[in-house]
Amino acid sequence: MLPPIEEIEVERIHGRDKQERKASARDIDVDMNPMVDLAFLLLTFFMLATTFSKPQAMELLVPAKPDEEELERETPVRESLTISLVLLEDKIVRYRGISDPETFDMPYDNGPLREFLLGAMAEIDGLVVLVKPLPESNVEHLVTVLDALNVTNVQRYALAEPSDFDQTLSSAIQIEEP
Amino acid sequence: MPKLRNIRKKPKLDMNPMVDMAFLLVSFFMMTTTFKAELPEEVRIPPSSSEVKLPEKALCTISLSADGRVFISLDNKFERKRVLDAVGAHYGLQFTDDQRRAFALLGGVGVAMADLPALLDARMRGEPFQQMGIPLGEGGELRQWLLTARMVNPRLRFAINADARAKYPEMNELIETLRDLNITRFSIVTDLKSSYAAAD
């Protein structure tokens, strides 16, 4: 026969009474210091390994390669509206139009470059800037010029193949060098 | 009068809140971290005033080192394996599981197709391997890599991570390769310089 339910001592079911359990709980004392050490070690690692500054990027839109049909329909741009920036090794040569241009030198410097572009935009309605990097120029030069074009909000610009005339700018400079 | 005894009791500090906090920070950093992409070649990024951030996901980066070598890297480890398989199939190469795993862990690859198995084997053994760059040009392997990557993930975006000192002809070749594949919108990775910020 089972005893009536009221007589069962719940406290004793697991063999220990309340008092005992309390006592043993007080005795357990885990040293947390190694755990803190580990946690901070991991923390340091992740803090150092993480990249907070994501790289910036410059969006570039280039025209798709035209097929032959499109090449025929290509609209020419009026010479007088164009300004060419020829990128050389240590400076930019700029000129307006194509035939018999008067050339000016510019350093790879943001201030003058932007000033010039803003002036050109004010002067020429529907300005088209042709960027012509010569083989001796590098990526930094290209990015500097594209950046100036973006900042000054020049609406129409293009990367163009250097013409024969542009090539002579380069060789002329090379001759001048001692 | 009884002498006052100096009771030396070891001070006890409850470390539990500290552990809580430390692990909270650890989990935060674990979840937010994106590891620096390991590139075979250090690239000095050109400065600009652009503040546009590079897209985080679905990004294919084409790196151009100062001496004109080209590397390609994909941000998604799972896509890397599929791209490797597809490119390998095109060139009639079969890769072992170990090689595929090595490729998935590789930050960027810059070798000709013929050297790729050797590179992956060296990687598995933890040996250094001189990467000479992906061949460019007409019918070059870079074109095939980009084409395959785009087929695996049609929404892939492209970025050119070119060294500031890299010469223009190589850069032009990259741009032309992208144009040739009808990728007309891409990014050039630049470094934000405060001195470059628009003064006006």
Characterise the protein shown here.
- Chain A is α/β, with parallel strands linked by helices and about 180 residues long.
- Chain A is built from 6 helices and 6 strands, in the order ααβαβββαβαβα.
- The N and C termini of chain A lie far apart (about 120 Å).
- Chain B has a domain at about 55-195.
- Chain B contains 6 helices and 5 strands; from the N terminus they run H-E-E-E-H-H-H-H-E-H-E.
- Chain B has a 5-stranded mixed beta sheet.
Structural class of chain A: alpha/beta
Q: If you consult CATH, what is the topology of the domain at 79-176 in chain A?
A: Nucleotidyltransferase, domain 5
- In angstroms, what separates the terminal alpha carbons of chain B? 84 Å
- Number of helical segments with 4 or more residues of chain B: 6
Overall radius of gyration of chain B: 24 Å
What is the percent of helical residues of chain A? Answer: 40-55%
Overall morphology of chain B: elongated
SS-based class of chain B = alpha/beta
Mean pLDDT of chain B: 82
Strand content of chain A: 15-25%
What summary fits the major beta sheet of chain A? Answer: 5 strands, mixed
The percent of residues in helical segments of chain B reads 25-40%
Low-confidence stretches of chain A: 174-178
Biggest sheet: strand arrangement of chain A: 4-3-2-5-6
Query: Approximately how much beta-strand content do the residues of chain B carry?
Result: 5-15%
Report how far apart the termini of chain A are: 118 Å
Q: What is the β-strand count of chain B?
A: 5
